[in-house]
Amino acid sequence: MTLNTGAGLKRDRVRDFLLDFVADMKAGEAIPSERDLCKELGVSRPTLRAAIDDLVRSGVLVREHGRGTFTGPHRVTQALAATPSGSFYAPPAEGHWLSRILEFGSAPAGPQLARRLQLAPAALVLRVVRLRVVDDEPMAIERLHLPHVLVDGLVPDDMESGSFYRVLRERFGVDVRSAVQTIEATVTDETEAVLLSVPEHFPALMVERTTRDVNGGIVEFTRSIYRGDRYRVTSELHFDAASG
Amino acid sequence: MTLNTGAGLKRDRVRDFLLDFVADMKAGEAIPSERDLCKELGVSRPTLRAAIDDLVRSGVLVREHGRGTFTGPHRVTQALAATPSGSFYAPPAEGHWLSRILEFGSAPAGPQLARRLQLAPAALVLRVVRLRVVDDEPMAIERLHLPHVLVDGLVPDDMESGSFYRVLRERFGVDVRSAVQTIEATVTDETEAVLLSVPEHFPALMVERTTRDVNGGIVEFTRSIYRGDRYRVTSELHFDAASG
DNA sequence: CGGATAGAGTGGTCTTAACCAGTTGTGCCG
DNA sequence: CGGCACAACTGGTTAAGACCACTCTATCCG
């Protein structure tokens, strides 16, 4: 029982260790006590607890005061799914999706993007604008921004079809782990209306997403506009006893 | 500068203090440094940071390494993920929330609602329409529907302030466990526009939520309209190795 | 005068060390 | 034999301090 070699935050290494540890267990089984795990792994209890907190938040583990910590009921956690596809990230099952690349090129990040991607303002950023089309009907405009160093050699073809995240993993060794996503209501402006074939000021969802890899590094910042009449977001929430 | 009297967790008292503190500030303004706040409030840095963590998760504050901690963009941000403290059901953190009850009464479910609530069409359903107001500004219209048998004796006052879900638990023994939520883009109709003090056809989010208790029984079905300029939804996604 | 640099201040991470609060099993006492 | 109390777990909260990484600014040197 030992941690991986010293890359990244200790808390994340502990979390990953626990993920492996839990992988072979049945649902509802108890893991060792926090104090035991601290001794085994050679970390302090706050660090260990921070790692467990992550896994509790994502539903992998469940704590019970005075009894112990147990593996969660359902093992795979997919917190948020978007119709019609099922997932924001998996290639949609329903309909025939295509992407039309409208823009593809690198430029210095500038102050705003630098902040979003946690890069130096002068660092190169790959900017891709693509129109997503389902069954010949325009569905969304995605504006992706990725640190150029991560994806040197990426070509427009890579983004025309299939899973972009698979390309990232297999060709560039970038392993997407988590994302924070913000959704808000908006209406289309003139350009967006034309691209999406809807009237100007048509209801739409603006989705901003920041994606991170296994080490917590930022992989992409994306701002997308989805047609309001064709797109909805579904999510499932879970609470523990303490929730007010 | 001092904390409230000693009820509840210190971390939560610090968080509430910061909420009050931040209430009078403009968007993007800096709060005092962590070390200064510790001295002022007489708490340790881990405790102070735990409180700030909550507010960062719910979008009230934004941290910038090496620069400081700042108030978030002036919007109400609601975390979709259920976090230990800033849950979906707690009144959102920023500003002073009130409810104005517009409608409150029971009637037979009818075919549509019966299906949503899994009741007989003749079963009584409590219907509540309330306008949610933040800092004197209308924010959302909520239309709640609950099986009447679950909440017999509920009065409008119960929904004017505080946590409705706490009332459910403490007074009616209903223990909320999970919810499925759907978000889509829309624009306000005439009635909604008047209530929300925005123009007709203004961008808005429609949120439908079905809530279940610990036994899987349906507790409520709610359809709400939120002002698009003041409301956003944030969620955190996690993937395991298999995600493509 | 301008650019490099050192220092002060910021948040970020981790450790050690208590003590509090539930749960459970065991053993004593009635 | 049965019930109650205590002891030994469990997770929950807070403290105090050290050190790292990043940002900004003011000063010094060319």
TrEMBL record, chains A, B:
GO terms for molecular function: DNA binding; DNA-binding transcription factor activity. Residues 4-74 form the HTH gntR-type domain. Keywords: DNA-binding, Transcription, Transcription regulation. GO terms for biological process: negative regulation of DNA-templated transcription. InterPro entries: Bact_HTH_transcr_reg, Chorismate_lyase_/UTRA_dom_sf, Tscrpt_reg_HTH_GntR, UTRA, WH-like_DNA-bd_sf, WH_DNA-bd_sf. SUPFAM superfamilies: Chorismate lyase-like, Winged helix' DNA-binding domain. The keyword Transferase does not apply. This is GntR family transcriptional regulator. It comes from Planotetraspora mira. The lineage of its organism: Bacteria, Bacillati, Actinomycetota, Actinomycetes, Streptosporangiales.
